[in-house]
Fold each of these.
Amino acid sequence: MSRKKLLPLFLLPLLVACSDQRAVFEIDSSRHSLTLIRVQSFFWEKTADYAIVAARMPDCMRRHDMGPGPADSRIEVYAPGNDAWILKQGKRMVVVETRTCEGFARLEEAPEGGLGPLQGSFQMQSDSLTFVAAAKSEASTETAAPTPN
């Protein structure tokens, strides 16, 4: 076989190495949801690029880039209210809303009123990105901001 014919065979593992995974948190239904997108260029990399898609169909849908983060990180979803959602990935936090799907901001610290009830988390399970809903007891307790003394 010629080198030109063998080259694609050697490059094939590099093309297969890319991982693009998605998981959905359905808020009210599949028409009102948050979808986390996790893209890892090569399986040996320790980081991945993350994006969140806020959707409340048919009114709005928008993708927001969250930036790179650890490939195996867990992203918790909190509901402070008013169709706002706080995503917490380690110490990094962002807020996204599903009223207009336009609002997206990075948070330096937890809001004064707290994060709101934990809804669940996006996490890797058996090499697949999934959304794991919070247990009823976790979802009903709010994560409050510390009160000054």
Note: Residues 3-16 form the longest helix (14 residues).
Amino acid sequence: MTDRAATTRTGPPGGPTTATPDPYRLDPADAIEPPTSFRGRLKYLGPGLVISAAVIGSGELITTTALGAKAGFVLLWLVIISTAIKVWVQLELAQWTILSGKPALEGYSHVGPRLGRRAGWINFLWILMDFAKVLQRGGIIGGAVAALSIMFPVVGEPLGTPSLIFWTVVSLGVVISLLVTNRYSVVEKFSVAAVVVFTLCTVGLAIALPFTDFAYDSTDVASGLTFAIPAGTLGFAVAMFGITGVGADEMTTYTYWCLEKGYARYVGPDDGSAERARRAHGWIKVMRTDVLVSWVVSTVCTMSFYVIGAAILHPQGLVPEGNDMIVTLSHMYTSVMGDGAQWIFLVGAFMVLFSTFVASTASVPRLWANTVALLGFYDWHDLSTRTRIIRVLTVVFPIVWALSFLVIQSPVLMVQIGGVASGIFLIAVVIAVWWLRTKEVPKEFRSNHALTVALVLSSLAVAALGVYSALETFGIEVGA
């Protein structure tokens, strides 16, 4: 009989300081009693903030600001809904991960029909979506590289092809070397700090606008809460809905970070005991707090970027496009604070986009390594093989993304394409979530009626988005 003290321990006040050799394998010895207070739960936050740092660069900075510049205040309501409506699907998927100890892609494989030995149709749909996301990630790299080229045009003119190539190569070298040499934790802390600083500056600017020449008032805000969609902005709005907040790929990735943070390991393997169920409830509360905090950060950030785009860029007829995206976006600062503020924006924009680049480079190889295992090429629990595959993909993927940018050189368009692909995949994620909830989540963990209603509403909205995106993909025009 296993000694109780050996299977359940209390984590240190500042959170766990050690990790098991394999974060994807459950061991009874890793079980930890969950914190019982909100303050205690805050000490174990992390995965949601990593996801927030990842999405700010693509959705919030680029697409949301561009939508505000194009539509004005009228779509402010969509910003609020797009960040809030998808959270409930994320919560349900992450709960299944904590209870099962398995990442999302493995859960997707449980939903039939299967098209391979272990992979299901959703896994193959994910593969197709990720090919489209290559363009989005290339657009993110392009934005960061454009900022560097403007600040330091080392080779030729700013935004010239030689300068862009030079800074692309430098950025690739830095990110790949940091991740391959296991120094990602340092980059992550720096990136999150940079996002926080840049976001605080942007929120401050949005709040200060009423006292400048680009003032907005309650009438403008009210016009943005009328649920109207002006002509010519529907496709752009769908892309924003797919990207801002947590998209399909962020929901999927979040489960991997939950596992690597230790939420499932601290619950322990399912032995059917009441103690294990109690720990599961406690760590699911930690996860929900993590999602709540990241949702607040994402919503405040997204609204600020949109308001700035609507108040500053829209009246001037400035819409971010092509490689001039960074220059156009910099007008958010220079129009209010003068030409000297361009450097403040460029440094902040680079940090935000670079953090997104780093987060993608860290997460996508994990998802593909899991996919390769599901396709039957190796055993996912073979730690050495998995590690080698992730390291190889960490080198290969950023190069592919960067090449896509150098060929297309239109960051806004590239990010929008990835957003539409995410919108289509969202409907498959909803199907998987309901299947897993019905078949594999114990009844006691789905008895909260308020959460169930929220999940239903979220699922309906996501389904509508997915249907629209699919129709648009096949050339069937819906709306203006």
Note: The beta strands are 9-10, 32-33.
